[in-house]
Design brief:
35% strand; 17 strands; 292 residues; single chain; 2 domains; Diaminopimelate Epimerase, Chain A, domain 1
Length: 292
């Protein structure tokens, strides 16, 4: 039997965020066993905690969707760190946890009772070409004119992101999930209250009545993954790198995600010491053991 937790991420209220399954003491598990268990949980991601292999890392994590392994993902990073600390993990440097994963070492910090990770470098960035935008529009079932801008935001999962006019347009989307075999699409639109004012306030109550700068949705179909992800740390990290760099947003700001799925995910973006930090609350909903 192995220690196991299921953590709800990007929420302080249980069952309003995005869950991740976390399996400890996984060093002796094979790739096939990890993949089989991740397929069984049927969550967007399941993580396995192992002893680190790189100098400076506090622990190593492997991240699996129901059908494949990811080099990095945001909500599993925060959820795994929360579970590791709750299980008695002690970082080598107080206040900073160093996670080893497929993209290398990722730093996490603890601030205001919330965990945040430093956004990893993009594997692929820059403007999307018209052929890719046309493919995105086909899936989202929108006209090309509705896309104000489109960028590659690939920090591991392979995101391509499009910016729409407002949050209402984002929430109105009804994608055709059967349009293509594989995709990783992020969609963002500003809050109707106004980005500038909301970016300054950062007010949030996590019950859906708060102020936020942008509404985000994430659609992906690869390796057996679901059509829409409730709250997506990797996408929000890449969106921050894009939208802060071009002046669309200023930090700190709050992003809302999961509204269309009945969730109330909140992602807290900050910028300090040359890094973009992606933060969120986390709460353990299941705590026990599993037999793998």
């Amino acid at each position: 039997m192995r220690p196991f937790k299921q953590v709800d991420v990007f929420t302080a209220v249980p069952y309003r965020g995005n869950p991740v399954a976390v399996v400890f003491d996984a060093d002796d598990l094979s790739d096939e066993q990890m993949q089989q268990f991740a397929h069984w949980t049927n969550l967007s991601e399941t993580t396995f905690v192992l002893a680190p292999t790189e100098a400076g890392a506090d622990y190593r994590v492997r991240i699996f969707t129901p059908g494949s392994e990811l080099p990095f993902a945001g909500h599993p990073t925060i959820g795994t760190c929360h579970a590791w600390l709750e299980a008695g993990g002690v970082p080598a440097t107080e206040g900073i946890v160093v996670q080893e994963c497929g993209v290398g070492l990722v730093n996490l910090r603890q601030s205001d009772g919330r965990l945040a990770f430093a956004a990893p470098d993009l594997i692929r960035g820059g403007p999307a070409d018209e052929a890719d935008i046309a493919r995105v529009c086909l899936i989202l079932q929108i006209a090309r004119a509705e896309v104000l801008d489109a960028q590659w935001c690939d920090n591991g999962p392979g995101w391509i992101a499009v910016r729409l006019a407002n949050a209402e347009a984002v929430l109105a989307l009804e994608p055709d999930f059967s349009a293509v075999e594989s995709y990783d699409i992020g969609v963002v639109g500003p809050s109707p209250v106004g980005v500038a004012g909301l970016a300054k306030t950062g007010a949030v109550d996590n019950n859906g009545d708060d102020e936020f700068a942008i509404e985000v949705r994430a659609f992906f179909r690869a390796g057996g993954g679901p059509g829409e992800d409730p709250v997506t740390g990797s996408l929000n990290a890449a969106l921050a790198q894009w939208l802060l760099a071009d002046g669309t947003l200023t930090a700190p700001y709050v992003a809302a995600q999961g509204t269309a799925l009945g969730r109330a995910g909140r992602v807290f973006i900050d910028q300090a010491d040359g890094e973009i930090w992606v933060g969120g609350d986390a709460v353990t909903c299941v705590d026990g053991h599993v037999d793998i």
